[in-house]
């Protein structure tokens, strides 16, 4: 809710004219309580979760396998439409019950850390810098939580649910035990808590983070994926390997970048496997990205 009676009052307080984006934000949010603006997050999450994985899901389900197989990381694994739908329904239910419930009670924390809804809107540079910090913080904290979840108790009681998909699909990105969904909410919220932002940046952060997770769980590795231009970005092949190895995996714990695994030595299994695969391809033309014998 913006504390000005009119656009003229807002511009007087800013000391300049509003940009078109600020005028649009003023029109949209001036009479909407901040709590309701915050609750947009759950609706946005559902739209992103429903729409973003759809193109590749349709490609996998409708396109001839010979067309998609060269880009599939595990082309021998193909799920049925019913399996896709079951994944969507199971994940949506957990998201609604956990993220939805969290959303209802976490507003005081959002206010306390200083997520603002007023004017001016942040500049593009400020938004980009904040998103970079959020990615770095989330990647680091998420790395350690994920590593803890691969201890015996953590895996048996919680994390095994996320690993039910040994060959992941986009819809399985947030598929996890409810406790894991809640616990992994903290690394995602830590960045905005350390460097508070505007509500629009807060929404954008969760949108980009979810799209990134859907990308890394897509099961496809396209050579023209623009994320390949991002330095130290893990991507789908990197995380697919973690799912492929499954329970015994002690490699590729980071959710976004590769440097935590490099620094702490938890990418050795992956690098060894890639080297083995390269030799094998030279020898007999293996088609799976991970079709040497399972090892980590
Ligand atoms: Zn894992
Ligand atoms: Zn995963």
What is the topology?
Blueprint (H helix, E strand, L loop, with lengths): L6 H8 L5 H10 L4 H18 L2 H9 L2 H4 L12 H25 L1 H7 L10 H26 L2 H8 L18 H6 L1 H10 L4 H18 L18 H11 L13 H5 L4 H17 L12
Bound molecules: zinc ion (ZN) (2 copies).
The site of one zinc ion (ZN) has 5 residues, from loops.
Enzyme class: lyase
GO molecular function: aldehyde oxygenase (deformylating) activity; iron ion binding; oxidoreductase activity
Protein name: aldehyde oxygenase (deformylating)
Give the overall shape, derived from the CA principal axes. Answer: elongated
Main sheet summary: none
Question: How many helices?
Answer: 15
Tally the beta strands.
Answer: 0
Q: Domain count, please report it.
A: 2
What ligands are attached or bound here?
A: zinc ion
Average the pLDDT over all residues and give the rounded result. Answer: 93
Protein name: aldehyde oxygenase (deformylating)
Organism: Eragrostis curvula (weeping love grass)
Membrane topology: Multi-pass membrane protein
EC number: 4.1.99.5
Task: Walk me through what this model shows.
By secondary structure, the protein is mostly helical. The protein folds into two domains: 1-32, no CATH class; 33-284, no CATH class. Helix content is 61%, strand content 0%. The chain is built from 15 helices and no strands. It has helices spanning 7-14, 20-29, 34-51, 54-62, 65-68, 81-105, 107-113, 124-149, 152-159, 178-183, 185-194, 199-216, 235-245, 259-263, 268-284. Helix 3 runs parallel beside helix 12. The protein is elongated, with a radius of gyration of 21 Å. The chain starts with 6 loop residues before the first helix and ends in a 12-residue tail after the last helix. The model is unreliable at 292-296 (pLDDT under 50). Bound molecules: zinc ion (ZN) (2 copies). Belongs to the sterol desaturase family. It comes from Eragrostis curvula (weeping love grass). This is aldehyde oxygenase (deformylating). Residues 132-266 form the Fatty acid hydroxylase domain.
